[in-house]
Amino acid sequence: MVEFQEKLRLQQESSMHTELEKLLTTAKPSETEISRKDFEGFTRLFHRFLQEKGPSIDWAKIQRPPEDSVQPYEKIKLKGLPADVASSLNKLAVVKLNGGLGTSMGCKGPKSLISVRNENTFLDLTVQQIEHLNKSYNADVPLVLMNSFNTDEDTKKILQKYTHNRVKIHTFNQSRYPRINKESLLPVATNMGLTGENEEAWYPPGHGDIYTSFYNSGLLDKLIAEGKEYIFVSNIDNLGATVDLHILNHLMNQPGDKRCEFVMEVTDKTRADVKGGTLTQYDGKLRLLEIAQVPKAQVDEFKSVTKFKIFNTNNLWISLPAIKRLHEKNAMDMEIIVNPKTLDGGLNVIQLETAVGAAMKSFDNVLGINVPRSRFLPVKTTSDLLLVMSNLYSMNAGSLTMSPKREFPTTPHVKLGSSFTKVRDFLKRFESIPDMLELDHLTVSGDVTFGKQVTVKGTVIIIANHGDRIDIPAGAMLENKIVSGNLRILDH
Q1: What is the model's pTM?
Q2: Most CB atoms closer than 10 Å: which of 31, 269, 317, 453?
């Protein structure tokens, strides 16, 4: 049986190799070398995928992380800041994961180009934040964008507008991997093109690809040569992920042999975060555990807020020399995420991905820092967008902070229905963003519009039944209200 499986695996690898070589013959001469490197990475992942069967973890071995392996942010903040912050900042580069499209919010093009606050896009806010740091401390922190083939062209066009900002901006591209047919385990692409029948044949392989593509781009070596020691990595849609000087100072002040090579910012779980990856101790190493790796029987235990109290914000501080060392030794160990998809024509495919935080166990002297919730402010939906556009937050130099006028520092729970999913529709339904300073919970479902200067407080639920429409009039104040049926207030 084992012999047969081994034979089958070798056959599948050989067939894949043949198909990839065929695809390479259709590449443009200028792209052949890049595509070959991408395919080398894909082949390594595919090889591991064929070898690994069943869950990659033994649930019985999972333990809570030791006390000292996750430090409270307050403890790190107590150290204060040195007089010379600039010398630490000059050893840092900021990397934003910019591979995603705005499709889930009904937008074309890169997600980072969606306006989130006063006409500023995610990218505008990021540039403003780093420029403010560079000006305030007379420092030179560059911004690095990891684009994908989906976002690269549009992002590069827009970068021209920042030429006069005090931020050096570099870009590099994530790999481009072929989606594979779930049955035949062969690529669905017929050539290297990205249009027509091949439009859905390719994918960027998750943010775990950062290590390989960063190295292959030459940018890793360039930054090391410029004296950079750490990168601060985060998702571009996490508006809370700003450069934290206390964490940076903590990294820079470790003794040489105890230098942290990898810091993961975690924060306390709420009921909204039960699916988020968590930190565990496994085989003596601190390790990220994602819901996809959990055996079905243990999923409820994984989601429990009592056993696993923290989750990964995907704000990471990583040593550049360590990335170089691990990549050159081919020692970056990340679990494979098998992501099943159905293409528009109904074909079932799989894409093999990895997550950037999963490499944590490959680094030395790793640390979790339990940060305030304010460092995790992702905008994944228009419900999130409503929060960050509202008076709950004030903006200063590209950074959003919770308004001091809000009594409770927690974020309200907002759930907007399908009529609000697309940004364009969402904006049409609000004449102005409501006052939400005293809001705890807002649910809106159905055909609902909001007039100017509406205030919502406490728990507000607005449900327009199918075929009905509710117009909340200008100046309305809703406190602990349920509004349903058909409410149309018309001027005559």
Answers
A1: 0.93
A2: 317
